[in-house]
Amino acid sequence: MRSRRSRWIASAAALTVSALALAGCSASGSGEDDNTLKLWHFEAQNSAMGIAWDEAIKVFEEETGAKVEYEEKAFEQIRSTASQVLNSDQAPDILEYNKGNATAGLLASQGLLTPITDAVDEYGWADKLAPALQTTARYSEDGVMGSGDWYGIPNYGEYVTMYYNKDAFAAKGIEVPTTLAELETAMDAFVADGTTPLAEAALEYPLGQLWYQLALSKSDRQWVNDYQLYENPVDWTGEPLTYATDTLTDWTDAGYISTDATGLKAEDAGVSFINGESPLFFSGSWWYGRFVDEIDSFDWGIFQFPESELSLGSAGNMWVVPANAKNPDLAYKFIDITMRPEIQALIGNNGGLPVAADVADITDPKSQELIEGFNAVNEEDGLAFYPDWPTPTFYDDIVANLQELLNGTKDTDGVLTTLGDGYDSYVEDFRK
């Protein structure tokens, strides 16, 4: 992988020099920019993190006298344009970015992110993060997570779980499923009434996460290490991935998932659950605070995906500092504020998963439910990351192939052959 990465790094460096030359500026900034922190994040204003970051901005401005220039960005907007923007003089000083080999790892290997190991030591951030949560913050020179310099600071945790409409379940006398068979029986009961039980979206991440969870239900930790960390070749015809792909087809044929999902985004699926249109939604803890805030017509809860000791999840998205940041020192001060117990408690009491909060400060019962679920997964060493992390293009590859699976233009063999070829062509250099 070193040869391919070195070409990317050289290209990125050349583009960076050109961009700075054309802009007629240096990375240190000047004038008014010296007292302004340019910040990007994609958290909804009423989400746990959005609430916490708003308060952190107020504290930062009061304590430093600097101003925050905040720009709201969509997750997909940042994901798809990060390389180009960070290669220019338009880069922010700090932004929230997705973690993993294919995202933060790739940008780090291209020289687009600042290694912040010295700042981690200076501020003592490592002492506030459990070892498992540090994995996605450190990257080797090849961009593989788990070792090397620090390139970001996660300040919340996240995992994927099943949200369910308690009232809808109670009306049909359905208990929380503890096996896959019970889950399918529950979904059959809703299909019989003309209801599509699973709120899904195939234009973005939700369907791919369900696919990966189905694979995890037939996997163990070594399979995860092979898939995510390239320890051994992945068998793309083996039981986990074949079962996951076959099951998506079966569930679509059974009416558990609508074929209309091929044209829906994550927001559409989440709103379907909020509106009570579908009684189940398999997605991340990042929705939890919003559901607390917006769902008032029914009672709802969460349960762990049945018959699986592994769950999607990790440390949350993290603060990163671009190599072209004009004010990295201000960025570090802002990061440190977000790690304070009082800011972390805001995350915990508004439906998020803090990583450095005083547990005694978490008083909201609904938030306690989410944190208990997360702790249960952690106690089993169950966090298994996300399906799109292994390659830079895998997010788009998974989305496109699962769309074709749902609309019937590809079968299991076609999907797994395409995904396997793309995966193997990327990771084979790591094993040389």
UniProtKB/TrEMBL annotation:
Secretion signal, residue range per the UniProt entry: 1-23
Transmembrane segments: none
Superkingdom of the source species: Bacteria
Family annotation (InterPro entries): Bact_solute-bd_prot1, SBP
The keyword Signal is assigned to this record: yes
Entry keywords, A to Z: Signal
Pfam family, one: SBP_bac_8
PANTHER family per the UniProt record, alphabetical: ARABINOSE-BINDING PROTEIN-RELATED
Name the UniProt record assigns to this protein: Sugar ABC transporter substrate-binding protein
UniProt organism field: Amnibacterium flavum
